[in-house]
Design brief:
about 280 residues; mainly alpha; two-stranded antiparallel sheet; 9 helices; 2 strands
């Protein structure tokens, strides 16, 4: 398993960096749209949509929502100033706070949504749409002045999450004794969480020392810490829905990682939460 994870990481990380820095924003938007539609397909399974036809229609609905709002957002303006994007970012913050409660009180919380495919589909929309628009908002950040400013910020958040996830995985396996959420994901431990936070702090401190990122250190520290904690909630939330659906992986498209959602579950929470805090709450960048 570790071998497949490493091989996949060596392929995916350079690919993601190339997409962030080499592709024009429109192509970036299209690739992000495709990733979100694959995620919608996999979420259909988590929501209990067994027939492929039902999952297909959910993908179409998500794709239409993403496309309609995209064409209504003027690219010439800073996206975080557009009311559609502002509401989506705030909705993301509310959703992940709600998801935290669902995770903390699981399995009791599942009583309210376990038998409702429709409600689980709504949860999927609240997961996928804000992820898409936060990715686009961050990519277009300050684009007229510096075309790569948003790329650096996105890479920063991704590195933040990847390092936390890797640190938690490696040190959690070696040192983990106290279970973080045994009813959802028995493999995750408090030792892994603390190790992940420590690992991400070191790597991102080094990264920020050389990358052209400009933000108040204290605010950046607060937003980064909350984003890492949100990434853990995102991971646990998907694990919770997979447990209810009786499946181990959301898909099998990525060797060693499962499906698209298995790879981006942490990012679906971390990026919208980070974007909302930095752009809407603190106005830090």
């Amino acid at each position: 398993m570790l071998k497949y994870r490493l091989i996949t990481a060596f392929i995916l990380v350079p690919t993601v960096i190339a997409i962030l820095f080499l592709l024009p924003p429109m192509w970036f938007k299209l690739i992000t749209l495709v990733v979100c539609m694959f995620s919608a397909w996999e979420w259909g399974q988590l929501a209990g949509l067994t027939p492929c036809s039902q999952r297909f229609w959910f993908v179409i609905v998500c794709g239409l929502l993403l496309t309609i709002i995209t064409f209504n957002v003027p690219i010439c303006l800073p996206l975080f100033t557009v009311w559609q994007v502002q509401y989506i970012l705030w909705a993301a913050l509310v959703w992940w706070l709600t998801a935290l409660l669902l995770v903390v009180y699981y399995p009791s919380s599942a009583v309210f949504w376990r038998r409702s495919n429709s409600l689980r589909l709504v949860f999927g929309i609240f997961t996928i749409l804000p992820f898409f628009y936060s990715m686009i908002t961050m990519r277009y950040y300050n684009y007229n002045i510096n075309p790569f400013a948003g790329s650096w910020w996105l890479l920063y958040i991704m590195l933040l999450v990847w390092s936390a996830d890797s640190g938690a995985y490696l040190f959690g396996r070696a040192l983990g004794r106290h279970k973080l959420a045994p009813k959802i994901s028995p493999g995750k431990t408090w030792e892994g969480l603390i190790s992940g936070l420590f690992t991400s702090a070191i790597i991102t401190w080094v990264f920020k020392s050389y990358a052209p990122l400009h933000a108040a250190p204290l605010i950046l520290l607060i937003c980064s810490t909350v984003a890492v904690l949100a990434s853990i909630v995102g991971d646990l939330t998907e694990s919770m829905f997979k447990r209810e659906a009786g499946i181990k992986d959301s898909g099998h498209i990525i060797p060693g990682h499962g499906g698209i959602l298995d790879r981006i579950d942490s990012l679906t929470a971390a990026i919208p939460v980070f974007a909302c805090l930095m752009l809407q709450v603190f106005h830090a960048i």
